[in-house]
Specification:
This protein is an alpha/beta fold. The protein has 19 helices and 18 strands. Mean pLDDT is about 75; it is low at about 1-40, about 60-75, about 80-90, about 100-115 and about 190-235.
Length: about 575
């Protein structure tokens, strides 16, 4: 068998692909959904080109590092039988229209107008291949370290780096610790098993400083037994930025504003106090604020509008439609197109703005086809009155149908350590369609903070008094969950609220929780979760707690639950 240039092609022995936007596995992944489709096209072309000339493909992945890469990168790791003839194995890429440029031995950079393609070529038996396979196989077998690795990658890629070396050093520090455990599991020496004369890899060189060091935050090592550093004070650093859907950038933690007007008993402060909290949130780095016409009703939008009007160009405001409100009370759903328009016009006035950044349908209206709802919002987007479309507590089928008419930027649903129902159908659908998740009640309506127990007496107007999960009996049964969260927090010098939020943030980059609060001190505490790095073991223990410990009581009354998942 020969290639187009008359050279003999070596036999193909294996073809294996991991990574990509479908799942975060070993290697790099596609950070920005805007490039996902372009990446998939290049992925297919590269695979066809290199395998056609007999290359063993170890990995095809992609990444973009915010602030450092002007365009995303495709990484291809190939293993060839004869490294001295490596150029022969890249003929397929050249024939496919890629331009090959040599950067360094064993590393070829292929330029395209849309993205860079890094081709790493190694011979069989090369130490770098052993290192790669060691990490890959260990992460496939060890769920705890896999969760740690994925969490670190999400965290690193979600930050703004001014220096590629700083990014690489932070990543390599964590990978070095994981490799130590992988070598130990295989009975290798701490220095690792290398072919004679092979040089040490850069990542492995990090372990030489102290193979007993345990992971703290990226770029920091800590001796066993050394007290953990407290989470950084939010005012000392900016809040990370995440992207909802294709291009709506918001702070990694938002602020749910409902409780400032209803649902959690008497407000501990005045209207002026709440305005101060909202403006203080912006000073702390929060840019994402959530309200709805039904909160109050109407008064919560008015509060948010007044507070944020002077800061409008610094924030993203989300509000919601979908209720039939009469005499100050919601009497059912109403998402008729003409009603959606009326609500939008009224919300614009109350929010003192010319556009609604994110407009959710608050609950699915069973009497109005979702296609009509999406079409009505699409018209408002075309008119510039709305920027993005969202859904709340919708089922997977409804999300698909709506997205086919008008792209859905985000879905808001309850999601936390003790409310996981959307993991079966909704989350896979969001991942497939490139839709973000905005979890409300990420702290379990306060229960996961450890401030609610069997002795708590709910005040008049506190909705928790009517929720099955908050009966005295069920609070006692669910205390084990709070105890676990507190135990993990104690090991990190963090509060239960910070642990519960950090677990959520580690699940995926396309997730932005919106915990509510009426106190600036609580907001500052919550923001500490953005910098809290949980270990793989922590994430595994917390993630399995709901199944292991059980959750007593329904999250809603029967009537309210019937309005979700439609």
């Amino acid at each position: 068998m020969t290639n187009d240039h008359g050279r003999r092609r070596p036999d193909v022995t294996t073809v294996e692909i991991v990574g990509g936007p479908e799942a975060l596995t070993v290697g790099l992944h596609d950070h920005d959904a805007r490039w996902a489709q372009d990446y998939l096209q290049h992925r297919r072309r590269i695979l066809a080109a290199v395998t056609a000339v007999g290359v063993d493909v170890e990995h095809i992945g992609s990444t973009s590092v915010p602030g450092l890469a002007a365009k995303p990168i495709v990484d291809v790791v190939v293993v060839v039988p004869d490294i001295t003839a490596e150029e022969d194995y890249l003929d397929g890429l050249l024939a496919a229209g890629y331009e090959l440029r040599v950067r360094e031995p064993g590393h070829r950079l292929v330029r395209t107008p849309a993205r860079d393609v890094h081709v790493h070529v190694y011979g069989r038996g090369d130490a770098a291949v052993d290192e790669y396979r060691l990490l890959r196989d260990h992460l496939r077998a060890d769920a705890g370290d896999r969760a740690l690795y994925e969490g670190v990658k999400r965290s690193l890629l979600d930050r703004r780096w001014g220096d590629m070396n700083a990014y690489s050093d932070a990543k390599d520090e964590v990978i070095a610790t994981i490799k130590d455990r992988a070598r130990s599991a295989r009975g290798w020496s701490a220095a690792g098993r290398r072919p004679p004369g092979a040089s040490r890899s850069r990542a492995e060189g990090c372990t030489a400083r102290d193979s007993s060091a345990t992971t703290a935050s990226p770029g920091v090592t800590r001796r066993p037994g050394q007290a953990p550093d407290p989470p950084p004070r939010p005012e000392e650093s900016t809040v990370d930025i995440r992207t909802l859907g294709q291009d709506l950038q918001v702070s990694a933690l938002g602020l749910g504003c409902m409780g400032m007007s209803q649902s959690y008993g008497p407000n501990p402060g005045s209207r002026e106090d709440m305005i101060a909290v909202l403006r203080g949130a912006v000073e702390l780095g929060v840019t994402f604020f959530d309200t709805a016409e039904v909160y109050g009703p109407h008064v919560n939008e008015e509060l948010v509008g007044e507070a944020l009007e002077p800061l409008r160009d610094q924030v993203v405001i989300a509000t919601k439609f979908g209720w039939d409100i009469r005499d100050g009370k919601s009497v059912g759903t109403d998402s008729r197109p003409e009603q959606i328009r009326r609500v939008a016009e009224a919300s614009l006035q109350r929010l003192r703005t010319e556009r609604i950044d994110l407009f959710y349908q608050h609950r699915v209206d069973p009497d109005v086809p979702i296609e009509d709802v999406a079409g009505a919002v699409a018209e408002l987007i075309a008119e510039g009155k709305v920027a993005h479309f969202g859904l709340s507590e919708a089922g997977a089928g409804t999300i698909r149908r709506a997205h086919a008419v008008q792209p859905v930027t985000a879905v808001q649903s309850e999601y936390s350590l003790w409310t996981r129902g959307i993991e079966t159908d909704v989350l896979p659908t969001l991942d497939e369609l490139g839709i973000a998740l905005v979890p409300f009640s990420p702290l379990g309506k306060g229960f996961l903070t450890g401030t609610v127990d069997t002795t708590t007496a709910f005040a008049d107007g506190d909705v928790r008094a009517g929720i099955p999960r908050f009966t005295e009996e069920n609070r006692a049964a669910n205390q084990a969950m709070v105890d676990l969260v507190g135990e993990v927090g104690a090991a990190h010098g963090a509060t239960p609220a910070q642990v519960a939020l950090a677990w959520l943030l580690a699940q995926r980059l396309t997730l932005v929780p919106i915990p509510g609060t009426r106190r600036l001190s609580r907001l500052q505490e919550n923001l500490g979760a953005v910098r809290l790095q949980l270990s793989g073991d922590d994430l595994t223990r917390l993630g399995g707690a709901a199944d292991r410990l059980g959750v007593a009581g329904a999250r809603y009354s029967e009537a309210m639950e019937k309005m979700t998942g439609l």
